[in-house]
Amino acid sequence: MSKKEDFKRMNKAYLENLASAIDIHKLSKGVLYKIIKSGEAEAISPHVNSVVTVYYKGYLINNKVFDDNTGQPYPDAFRLNTLIAGWQIALPQMRVGDKWQIYIPSEMGYGTQSVSGIPKNSILIFEIELVSVS
Q1: Which of 2, 37, 64, 130 is the most buried (most CB within 10 A)?
Q2: What residue segments make up the domains of the chain, in order of their start?
Q3: Cα–Cα distance measured from residue 51 to residue 134, given in angstroms and rounded to the nearest whole number
Q4: CB atoms within 10 A of CB 80
Q5: What is the pLDDT of residue 10?
Q6: E strand segments, the chain
């Protein structure tokens, strides 16, 4: 068995084990999440064409951080429909003020592409705090 096959199998097993945890919730296409903090019940949620303002930290299952804006004095803003599919699935379920840990299967992330420090077939884990929606 090759290292690449082992890596892919290890990532798949990670999600399968995680899916049975008591505090893990399931979304479509295999995206999982855990609630870290909840916003107000009446707070708004984004839609796919919204601009979302977020603090986030992205890392791999080995805890290697590949992106982090949490040390900045201000959050980053993105048009949701330009982001990876996993974000487009998870963020419309969030409300302003929510902070979630989101587990994105490789097919809803970068799939078979290697992208700046992220090996292909990697599960992406993000801690995302939704600050605002416009």
Answers
A1: 130
A2: 3-133
A3: 5
A4: 18
A5: 85
A6: 25-26, 32-37, 51-59, 65-68, 76-79, 99-104, 124-133
Q: What residues does 100 pair with on adjacent strands?
A: 35, 128
Distance of CA 46 to the CA centre of its chain: 15
Closest CA to 67 of 82, 79, 54: 54
Q: What SS3 string covers 49-82?
A: CCEEEEEEEEECCCCCEEEECCCCCCCEEEEHHH
Q: What number does CATH give the domain 3-133? A: 3.10.50.40
The pTM (predicted TM-score) of the whole model is 0.94
User: What is the C-alpha to C-alpha distance for residues 89 and 104, in angstroms, rounded to an integer?
Assistant: 10
- Residue 15 tokens read as 């999600």
Average pLDDT per run of 10 along the chain, which is 134 residues long? 77 90 95 97 95 98 96 97 98 98 97 90 97 98
Cα–Cα distance measured from residue 80 to residue 67, given in angstroms and rounded to the nearest whole number = 17
Q: 106 near 122, Cβ under 8 Å? A: yes
